[in-house]
Amino acid sequence: MSCLNDLLRRLTAFLVAASLAGAPLAALAQAEQQPPKRQTQQPQKPPAKPRTTTTPAKPTTGPSVAAKTEALPPSQVGIGTLAKQAFMVDPQTSTVLLFKDADKPMHPSSMAKMMTIYIAFEEINAGRLKLDTRFRVSERARNMGGSRMFVELGSEVSVEDLIKGMIVLSGNDACVVIAEGLSGNEDSFAERMTAKARELGMTGTVFKNASGWPADGQWTTARDLAVLSWRTIDDFPKLYRYYSESNWTYNNIKQDNRNRLLKTVAGTDGLKTGHTEEGGYGQATSSIRDGRRLILVVNGLTSMAERAQETARLMEWGFRESTNTTVFRAGDTVAEAPVWLGSVDKVPLIVAKPVQITAPSGQTVTPRVVARFDGPIAAPITKGTKLGTAVVTLPDNRTVEYPLEAGADVERKGVFGRVTTMIRHYLFGWLS
Fold this sequence. Notes:
There is one protein chain. By secondary structure, this protein is of the alpha+beta class. It folds into 2 domains: 85-324, Beta-lactamase (3-Layer(aba) Sandwich); 329-428, Sandwich (Peptidoglycan synthesis regulatory factor (PBP3), Domain 2), CATH 2.60.410.10. It is 35% helix and 25% strand. The chain contains 14 helices and 17 strands. Helix 6 (113-125) runs antiparallel to helix 8 (159-167). The chain starts with a helix and ends with a helix.
């Protein structure tokens, strides 16, 4: 019994000493189960929870991109992207949704073909060229490398086939045939391409050939290619349809359009892919949904698959995260202008095209609209005559201008009416 009492006294003393030292029983038990070294190293390990919360949502476009989008390089405007250069715009409102080094010089690759095609379209619209016009294939054209239409030396190929060859098959040989047919040689045609680029406002672009084949001094920007894309769509609505063909057969060789978004992204109807070793994989894309169009240019991607998946992801983001609001419908009256010596005192000023603004989805915005015109406007006035400008100030303080037209014909007053009005004016001043 004395031994048992002595053991109890020692255990009690030990517990009291431990309590005074600030070590609870649970801590003592843990200290016995985990070595001190493991306890000090544990906080140095990256915690699992912060890693998952900082990882962006995985895109729905495929597992190969999902692994790379865990740390997307940021953009100056819009979401991060794997592309080295990117530019997305809503052309109806001139709103830039995505901007990443979009004014930085880059290799145009086969996206340069869009300018060759633009010039061909322009010649057709002007009546100087017809779809059934035929151009002869030179040895230079036949020997072009890279993607080809497989034209035969000495054969004559119709302009329509050459257009399909450039758009659907990305044929470098077709570009040379067009260039030589229109300008005699490719160098002269490249100078024409650059001059047209300046005319369209593509200030950062210089072309050295018709196909985008790598060449010293040949540059463009993502923004410039977006301008070219929109001008192609806007200037040639009937000819633009060629950009939506998903495959084509020439010389018994069937090839698919390299623009995979034609089949995978709803509303996609163009435009052109490209690739060089120096510049990587790029693409100019346009899609339209419910009357709203977005244009996207990307470059510097690492593979065809990454290009297709990243372009699809960005295009879906653009439609999902932003929307257009109509401020004025086509034909709506923005203001009324006083008329001088007219059969009526005022003429309505209308917009011929819808006035829209782009805003984040779910956000209501009210822009400020100011009508500018020189008045009073002298009669007679013909309906449709441009008389002023509607200046729309957007929420980000950018301004967009829309032309204002006369919404009605206004006849001039007769002799007696004009005399009476002029007497009133000089005696009493202008009465508005």
